[in-house]
Amino acid sequence: MTNFVKLNNGVQLPLIGLGVYKSTPGNETYDAVISALKLGYRHIDTAQMYQNEVDVGKAVRDSGVPRSEIFVTTKLWRSEWGHQRATSAIQASLQRLGLEYVDLLLLHCPGDAATRAETWRALEEAVTKGLIRSIGVSNFGVAHLEKLLSTAQIPPAVNQIELHPFLQWREVVGYCKEKGIVLEAYSPLVKSQKLQEPVLASMAERYQVTPAQLLIRWSLQSGFVPLPKSVNPKRQAENLDVFGFSLSDADMQTLDGLEQDLVTGWDPIRNDPV
To answer: If DSSP codes are grouped into helix, strand and coil, which group holds residue 203?
Structure first.
C-alpha cells in the first residue's frame, strides 16, 4: 500500500495524519507535533477553532523537516463565513501558523447556508493566489455537498467526517467516492469508547496488534485517511505502525457489521441547514 492518496487536483495527501483537536495550546501541542514529525508523520490537522495553529506552525518550522514534505491542514470556523471575513480569516491563519501556504483548508462544517457559496469563493481565490494548495469541507452531508457543487468552480478535494466501524455514514461515503472526494476520518479510535469491545479485543489479539491499530487499519482498508489524535509519543508510534498487516475480507466484514450510528461528537451532517 502506498502511503499517499492523490486528491482530485493531483496533490498527494499522506494516508495518516495527526489530529490536534483538544491538544492544549502551547507546549503540549508543540511537543506533540515535534514528536510526530520525528516519528515519520507528514500530515498535521489543526483548525482555527482548536486555538493551536501557532504551536503547530512553530513545530513545523522547528522540526528540521522540509516544509514541502509536511502536509498542513487547517479549517475555517463558521463565525468567519462570508467572502470578506473568510478572506481575512485565511490570512490570519497563515500568520498564526507562520507559513506561506497551507496544504489544505476546510470549511469546518456546513455552517450558514446563505453565505456558504461566497465563503467557498474566498477559498477558491486563495488557491489562485497560491495561499492554499487544496480546499475541502468537513461534516458535510450529501445535500450540503450537492448544493456546494452546484456553484463551486473548484470542487472540494476532501470531506472530513467522523468515521469508524460504529459510525460509517454509508450514503455520504458512497457519494464522496462517486465524486472523487477523499474521505478523512476524524475520531477513528471512537474517542477510546470502544477499545475494550470484545470483538475488537479478540481480533486485535489474533493479529498481534492493539485495538487502536485495528481501527486505523480498518479505516485505511475502507479507503479513508484516518486522523488519530495523541500527544503520547508511544501511542503516536503505534498509530503509525499499521502498514505491516492487512485485515482479511472476513474480518473487514465483521468490523463493518458493528455499525451503531454512534456519533461521539457533534453532528452537523444532520443538524446544519442545507
So the answer is: helix
